[in-house]
Design a protein that fits this description.
The protein is 6% helix and 37% strand. The strands form 5 sheets. Strands 14-13-17-18-19-20 form a 6-stranded antiparallel sheet, with no helix packed on it. Strands 10, 11, 12, 15 and 16 form a 5-stranded antiparallel sheet that branches. Strands 4-3-8-9 form a 4-stranded antiparallel sheet. The longest helix is centred in the first third of the chain and has 12 residues. The protein is mainly beta.
Length: 305
């Protein structure tokens, strides 16, 4: 843990040095945009989602801001104690002290030779959560008189039991099966090496009217692997990259039927993992698992290990 903290601390300390040696007009623009998902109410969790224009995965720092107006110049970094800023994480839990202010986040990206930064749009003014009204108690029903007993009829033969209704809760993923679907093609390398341990994509949720409520979307992968996540379809727009084992919090919400999620876990020249999820109405998401051969972004049946 101390080695990881030293690495990130040293990287962000270099940001000023890198900026100083860059010539005028050479500022990088690799962070295309930053959006904030979640509701700006006390107690809720906000998530910063950066979109990068390069395949390289930089070191990222998230600086959460509290704003007194709808202008960026009136924003200042959130402090949880004197001289102690809020943690530099992609998520932030809205505090009572944020009530009446707008929130924003500035994402700093450190590459090998340069750095970049981007502000998100400001949120709406933070408010208290809407209280849930207490339901009106239902009066106790008038007891029904006991009916007169009648002779028990001769029982009919026991009918076949009806099949149980499908559960509204679903869970997909878990231990990844050995990829032995087919032998490699003649054009493939003689020896293919797989990511070790081979990635696992797990999704859990509940069926709701018109789609699914995703409560868990987690990718378990080696720390050196790049995780590319894309979502398209009704009400779902996401194109982001992560590094190693990660939880895709931006998609842990209600998704409408027709939303399509693709996850690619890659680290050339190893064979990577591909998963495609299609949200459906009344059924668990349709899932496809495949492999990514070295040098190709297209999903293929997994070759023999």
């Amino acid at each position: 843990m101390s080695r990881t903290r030293w690495r990130y601390g040293a990287a962000f300390a270099l940001m000023g040095v890198v900026a100083a040696v860059l010539p005028a007009g050479a500022e990088a623009h690799h962070v295309q945009s930053v959006t904030i998902t979640g509701n700006p109410v006390v107690g809720s969790t906000l998530t910063a989602v950066p979109v990068l224009s390069v395949p390289e995965m930089p070191l990222l720092e998230y600086r959460w801001q509290r704003c007194t107006s709808d202008l960026q110049k009136d924003c200042s970094r959130i402090m949880v104690a004197p001289n102690v800023p809020a943690p530099s994480a992609a998520t932030y839990t809205v505090a009572a002290a944020d009530k009446g202010f707008r929130l924003a986040v500035r994402v700093l990206a450190v590459f090998e030779t340069e750095n970049d930064s981007k502000w998100s749009p400001l949120t709406a003014v933070v408010t208290d959560p809407v209280p849930v009204p207490t339901p009106t108690p239902t009066p106790s029903p008038t007891p029904t008189p006991t009916p007169t007993l009648t002779p028990t009829p001769t029982p009919d033969p026991e009918p076949d039991p009806e099949p149980a209704a499908p559960s509204a809760v679903f869970s997909q993923g878990g231990a990844s099966p050995a990829p032995v679907l087919r032998a490699p093609s003649p054009a493939a390398p003689a020896t293919l090496r797989f990511l070790r341990p081979f990635p696992i994509v797990r999704v859990k949720g509940t069926l709701v009217a018109g789609g699914a409520d995703i409560t868990l979307l987690r990718v378990k992968a080696p720390s050196s692997a790049t995780v590319a996540v894309r979502c398209k379809g009704p009400g779902c727009r996401l194109d982001a990259r992560y590094f190693g084992t990660t939880r895709i919090g931006a998609l842990e919400r209600v998704l409408r039927a027709g939303a399509r999620i693709t996850i690619r876990v890659m680290r050339p020249p190893r064979v990577g993992k591909y998963v495609r999820l299609v949200v459906r109405d009344g059924s668990p998401p349709k899932r496809r698992d495949a492999c990514l051969l070295p040098g190709s972004p297209r999903p293929e049946p997994c070759p023999a290990a």
